[in-house]
Design goal:
By secondary structure, the protein is mainly beta. It has one domain: Elongation Factor Tu (Ef-tu), domain 3 (Beta Barrel). Helix content is about 0%, strand content about 50%. The strands form two sheets. Strands 1-6-4-3-7-8 form a six-stranded antiparallel beta barrel. Strands 2-5 form a two-stranded antiparallel sheet. β7 and β8 form a beta hairpin. The protein is globular and about 40 Å long. About 25% of the residues are buried. It comes from Chryseobacterium takakiae. Keywords: GTP-binding, Nucleotide-binding. This is Elongation factor Tu.
Length: about 100
């Protein structure tokens, strides 16, 4: 099984009033991530270790596992900002706190 690029991030979910999620999300939630080095969207799975549910307006630490093949993991660095979205648009922003090495 191929290892996927992954990192830990501090994520801020927008409130519903600001265009964020309407209902809580749980571990395994998939969102599209937008990084400053590319205009492409990258699919990723979020894993929450501190809580079972994340609500609109929450700030949470999450493990992020990239899903797309060809994700340029060599461009990730600690302190990098990114946005994440679902089909309704941008629902939050994050900052990478730890980048884990990809081992194949």
């Amino acid at each position: 099984m191929k290892k996927r690029p992954h990192f830990k991030a501090l994520m801020t979910y927008k409130t519903t009033e600001d265009g964020g999620i309407v209902t809580p999300v749980s571990s395994g939630f998939r969102a599209s991530l937008k990084f400053p080095f590319d205009t492409r969207l990258y699919m990723a799975s979020q894993t929450f270790s501190e809580t079972e549910l994340v609500f609109p307006g929450d700030v949470i630490s999450a493990e992020i596992t990239m899903i797309n093949d060809g994700t340029p993991s060599d461009k990730f660095y600690e302190g990098m900002d990114f946005e994440f979205e679902d089909q309704s648009g941008t629902i939050g922003s994050g900052v990478i706190t730890t980048v884990y090495p990809v081992q194949g």
